[in-house]
Amino acid sequence: MCGISGIAGGSDVTKRLYSCMLNLEYRGYDSCGMAVASGGAIEVRKNIGRVAEVFEKERFAELSGETGIAHSRWATHGAPSKVNSHPHTSSDERIAVVHNGIIANYVKLKEMLTENGHNFRSETDSEVIAQLLEFHHKKHGNFARAIRETMEELEGTYAFAAVVAESPDVIFCARNKNPLIIGVGKDANYVASDVVAFIEYTKNVVYLNDNEYAVVSKDSHQVFSAATGAPMEKEIDVINWDAEQAKKGGYPHFLLKEIYEQPTAVRSALQIPIEDIERIAKMAQDAEQVYLLGVGTTFYVTMLAQYYFKEIAGVFAPSISSDEFSYLCNVDEKTLVIAISQSGETFDTLEALRYAKANGAKTAAIVNALGSSMTREVDEVLMQGAGPEKSVLSTKAALSQIIVLTRIAISLGEMRGSLSADARDELNTSLWELVDVLRRLLDEKPGFIRRVAKRISSYTKWLFIGRGYHMPAALEAALKLKEVTYIPAEGMPGGFMKHGPISMIDEDMVAVVLMPTPENERLYNSTLINVSEMKSRGAKLVGFHFNPDEKIFDEDIVLPKAHYLFAPIPELVAGQLLAYFCAILLKRHPDNPRGLAKSVTVE
Ligand code: F6R
Predict the structure, then answer these.
(1) How far apart are the CA of 451 and the centre of ligand 1, in A?
(2) Mean pLDDT (whole number) for 40-68
(3) pLDDT given at position 50
């Protein structure tokens, strides 16, 4: 959702900024730009296109200076175009700004500034920040004061960074509800939306909180309260990810790399100390009502977990799409909200948590991104430790979230006395077995799944069905396919199909069936009915199943067997691989599908 980066100090600013931009491209990639301050002036270059393309086209390497800011954009206000790309400059072109977020009152501010002689060039909300900074700077001749007054007037969400012609060795930056981090290096300091931007240069970081701004130069960084102007004491945290973890490591795409990292992500989730799991289970045990919250893939993670909470712990903990939470749910001090978020920055989930807190609920979050906003806003945080996820499509983070939530369900079942020690041990053993199940799947099946993808990727209507705990996996497999191939794909419960969607089925449709193991007789037989209904209407039937002797599908994707409850886990991985190979065959970009961004920090 727009990537901001900045560097103060050092001799190869454009080269390092380019690398930061590439690392943040997952946050938005419809246009990008760079501004460098040098010799009392600012030079800006920007255009539409991917970072590498624009870097060449606009010859960013020619820019020289010791301080620079950069941006890759995910358009919200104003279509992707050269003029709407960031950085935006003030009317006198002595201030350049990059922004992530949405300025809610930009129309009003634009009117006021236009009346005061400011000359706007873009359709963006972001440009008002540069113009407002100039307006206040001209009034007081003091940039720190200009920032504070600007922040006072801006409504909405933002992280921004600015370079100023008259102070060419300094970056000014500020945060309100969008992430902003300072990287403290040896010969330079950095600012960015995410630590992965500069992790190859420094692992020492300082997090800005809401309503704080900072002044960053080559050898100093100082954070201030926007309300009082007082300097803030900040600790330097050390990030334990390495730069290699954030790179492709020989895979053609981050998506494939991250799919292959799933056995490791599952193992890391299983190695989270039991005390950390029990802390959240205890909160659930003490609550009268537990909600599981996420959005997109993460919503489907909570949907699956909802089955596990019921099956394992005997607790109905409804899964709610974060964006609907405040419209739907009753919340009070006896409520626990467990939010799940890879990025820890998702606007909808943060807002739902804030709503829950405001109504007295206890809050917990399971998060992957270190230092993200969510980790600082909830009562209890559990870090998943899945390592950085760079592809826009969530894969390994989602799988690791499922494991964490399952462990919480097991712990809760024990606390409630509804799960025996034997049953607990059996479930834990089965969870550990998943590491090997996924390894085998990833060693043996991708070539086969690629061949199936070749035979079906030209179909333009897809349906994924599953029943019981296979249903959320069907919804997620459909989401993966549609987001990366742009093919319309529906996911739904098997039982729902005959209540309407069945009329779509004909020989132009691929129907992917998530087939339970026969030992789960009721689910198996009900799903079998769906298979017959779809077969008789001519659909191309693809089965994700566990039985090499099954002969009912047109295409079989036979998966290594897992405990029946955890069968959705290999199904999810098969769905990811199918989507990946279809994307490659259809020449879609697997890491950066159109119109998406990894960290959705806007409403
Ligand atoms: C899809 C995907 C998204 C995210 C959603 C929530 O592959 O990645 O649907 O799951 O935007 O993101 P987080 O987990 O960061 O809150």
Answers:
(1) 28
(2) 91
(3) 87
